[in-house]
Amino acid sequence: MPRAFTPKVITASDLLEGDVIYLTEDDTWSRHLTEAEVIDDEAHAQIRLLDAQSQPDRIVGAYLADVTIGANGPEPAHFREAFRATGPSNYNHGKQELAG
Amino acid sequence: MYRYSDFDAAFVAERNKQFRAQVDRRIAGNLTEDEFKPLRLMNGLYLQLHAYMLRVAIPYGTLRSAQMRQLAYIAEKWDRGYGHFTTRQNIQYNWPKLKDVPDILDALAEVEMHAIQTSGNTIRNVTADHFAGAAADEIADPRPVAELLRQWSTDHPEFQFLPRKFKIAITGSPNDRAVTKAHDIGLRMVEQNGEPGFEVIVGGGLGRTPMIGKVVRDFLPKADLLPYIEAVVSVWNTLGRRDNKYKSRIKITVHENGIENIRELVEARFAELRPGFSGVDQEILRDIEAQFAPPAFTARDTDGFTAFYDNDPVFRSWVDTNITDHKRADHAIVTVSLKKQGDTPGDASADQMRLLADLAEKYGYDELRISHEQNVILPHVPRADLPAVHAALKAYGLATANIGLISDIIACPGMDYCALATARSIPVAQQIATRFDELKLEHDIGALKIKISGCINACGHHHVGHIGILGLDRAGVENYQITLGGDGTETASVGERAGPGFAYDEIVPAIERLIYAYLDVRDSSEETFLETYRRLGMAPFKAALYPEAAEKHAA
After folding, report:
1. Total number of domains constituting chain B
2. For chain A, which has fewer Cβ within 10 Å, the N-terminal or C-terminal residue?
3. ipTM
4. Structural domains counted in chain A
5. Is residue B402 part of a domain?
6. What is the 3-state secondary structure (H, E, C) of chain A?
C-alpha cells in the first residue's frame, strides 16, 4: 500500500537574497512558514511544484517539505526545515532576527 | 610574498567581468539556475541553507596585512561583519547577496585575491604548511611550489571538467602540518643526495571512504614536478569514475586499480608529457621563489621577553601553548586561537581581522597565515615583542591559550549553514570547549585534537581527529558517532568507530566520560590521548562510552 500523503509546503531560496521562502496560496512567496500554503493532496502538490518551478527568475531550488499542523499553521516536521525556518544556532542571524 | 603579475591581474579582472555579466543575465532571467550554477560554483559562490555563501581562496594560507584588512572591509560592507576560516585555508562569507558578489570579487582583486576554483570539479586551492617559511624544522619553504601549482592549475584546459574535485597539499617539513596523506595529492619536500625533490603521495582522502594516501613516487626531482602532477591528474581524469560521484575521487581510482598499476600509468604518461616542459616552468618558479625571499629579520635581544615570561603566569601559559619555535632563536611563530571557548571555531570579526592585520604590520613583517585548523598565525614575531602582541590580542578576545588542546576543535559549518549537512557541528564544538573550560581540565588533558563533521563528507576532518565526531540524521533526529585514534600528521591513521552514536544532548557527556577514562588509564601526564589509545586500544574507552553495555558484559 502506498504511504499516506503527509501535509507539505513548497519552499525554495530567494534568487536575489538567497534566503528561505515559502509558496502561498495566492501564488506569492512569503518569508514566513506560517503563511505557506499547506498541501494535503499528492496531485495538487505536483501541480504547485510546477507552478513554483516556473518562476526561475524569482526563486531557486523549489521542493516539497513535510510539515505538521500547529496552532499557528504549518510547522517544520524535520529539524533541517526547523533550522531553515529559524536561522543558525551560533548567531542571532537569519529568520530568528526578523522575528525579534 | 608573491605579487600578481600583469597576467594574473588581467586574468582575474577578465573572470570577474565575465561573472558580473553572468550574474546580470541570471537576474534578468536570461540564464536558468541549471545554466548559472556551474558558473557561480567556478567562482566560489554556493547557495546554502539560509543564504548564498562565497568561498574565497587564501592560496597556501598566506596573507599580507592589506589583504586581511580588505577581508574585514568585505565582511562589514557586504556581509554580517565576520568571516569563517575553513579547513582548506579559505575564508567563507555566509550572507552575501547575489547582486553584490561581483563587487566583492572586484574588491578581492584589488588586493590580489579571488574565489576561482574554490568549488566545482577542478583543482582546488593548494594548501600548505601554515608555518611555511618560518618553521625551525623546515627543509624548504613549500609556498613557491604551491604558487606555481596555483598558476598551472588555474583554468588549466584539460582539468576544468574532472570526475570530481581535486585537492593538493604540500609541506616542506618532516612534521606534517598540512594533512598531506589525506589529500588527492600530498607533496612532501625531501632531499636525496643533496638534490631537492618531493615524495609524491596519491589517493588520500576523507569523506565517506576515508583513505590514507599511498606513495606513488618516493623521490621526484624538483624540475619534474609539473609534468608529473599533470600525469597523475591526467591518468585519473581518464580512469576516474564519472558514473557515481561517491566513487569518483582518485582515492577510489587508486583503490580499484592498485597503486602499482597507477604508478605504471602515471610514469608512462609522465614520459609523454615531460619533453613538453622545456624549462619555462622552472624559470617561472625561480621568479616566484625570489618573491618568497625571507623578510629582512632584525636581530633582537630576548631579555625583556624572558623577564615577562618569568613574572606573568597568563603570558607564560599563552607562550607555552600558542608559540612554536621559529628558525631564528630570537623570533617566534605565534598561533592566534580563533577558538575562544564558546565561540564558533574559525570565525573572526572584522575588528579582529583588522587587529591581526595591524599586528602583522607592526610586529610581524607584514605576514599572516591561516591554518587548516582554523586559526591565524603570525609567522615571524620577535620574541621581544611577544608581550605587546599578547596584550593587544587579549583586548580583542584573541589571547586564548589553547592551541592543540581539547577546545582547539576543528568544526565544519554543519547544519547551521551547510545545505549538505545532516546535523549541527558548531554547537557541539562550543559545548565541548565550554564544558572542559569549566572543569579547568584543558591543560591537564594536554595535546588532543577533536574534529567534528556535520555529515559524511568530512569537511571537519573527523576521521583524522584523535577524537572524531560525525553528526548524522538518524530517523529525523541528530545523532553523533565517535571515532578514536585518527591522526592527520606524518603518522596518519583513520580513526576507528567506537560504537553506536549519541543523541545531541548525550554527546558532550559521552566525550566527558571518554576524557576521564583517558586521565585514569594514561601512564603519566606525558602520555597523550593518542599515545594512550595506541597503547591500550579501544577497550577502556568503549567501556567508558557505553557503561551499560560494559555492566551487562560483566554480569
Report:
1. 4
2. N
3. 0.96
4. 1
5. no
6. CCCCCCCEEEEEEECCCCCEEEECCCCCEECCHHHCCCECCHHHHHHHHHHHHCCCCCEEEEEEEEEEEECCEEEECCHHHHHHHHCCCCCCCCHHHHCC
